[in-house]
Structure formats: structure tokens, C-alpha cells
Design goal:
It is flat, with a radius of gyration of 16 Å. The N and C termini lie far apart (61 Å). It is built from three helices and no strands. By secondary structure, the chain is an all-alpha fold. The relative contact order is 0.12. The longest helix is centred in the last third of the chain and has 26 residues, at 63-88. The mean pLDDT is 86.
Length: 90
């Protein structure tokens, strides 16, 4: 039986699990602050990108649509980080 290489949803699931574990590890190791928030939200943005491209099927969509949707995910992550950082400054 030939070995099957990881591709598509298999690789995406492994990546999502890895990013989830990394997010948990960051929250346990680093104290709460802007850097920890940035790392956790960066992992969330990467997870969102994987879900949008691999599970919603936008990997084969035109570049404009991919850019708009991934840009939206990045914008939401940036706004969340700014809100978390602003609360630290008070």
C-alpha cells in the first residue's frame, strides 16, 4: 500500500491543532501583556486564514477574493490586539 502524503485538509487539521497548542502554551508561559496578546492573536489569524483557504475552499478562488477575505481576518485580529493593548495602558 503506497504511503499517502499530507495535503489539503489533513495538513490543515494538523496545522490548526499545532496552532491551538501553541496558543495554550503562550498563555501558560508568558505573563499577560502586549507580546502575549500579539502571539495568541497571530495564531488566531493564522488559524482563520487556514480555515478560510482550506475549509471554505477559497484557495482556488480569484486572488481578489482571497485577498479581501484574508485581509478581513487580519484586520479583525489587528483590531482585537489594539483593544487588548489599549486596556493594558489604562
Amino acid at each position: 500500500m503506497p504511503s499517502r502524503s499530507r495535503s489539503g485538509p489533513d495538513a490543515a487539521v494538523v496545522l490548526l491543532i499545532g496552532l491551538a497548542v501553541a496558543s495554550l502554551a503562550v498563555t501558560m508561559v508568558l505573563p499577560y501583556g502586549a507580546a502575549a496578546s500579539a502571539l495568541v492573536l497571530a495564531a488566531a489569524v493564522l488559524k482563520g486564514r487556514v480555515v478560510v483557504l482550506d475549509f471554505l475552499g477559497l484557495r482556488d478562488a480569484p486572488a481578489v477574493w482571497r485577498g479581501l477575505i484574508v485581509g478581513w481576518v487580519v484586520l479583525i485580529g489587528t483590531i482585537a490586539w489594539l483593544a487588548a493593548t489599549a486596556s493594558l495602558l489604562r
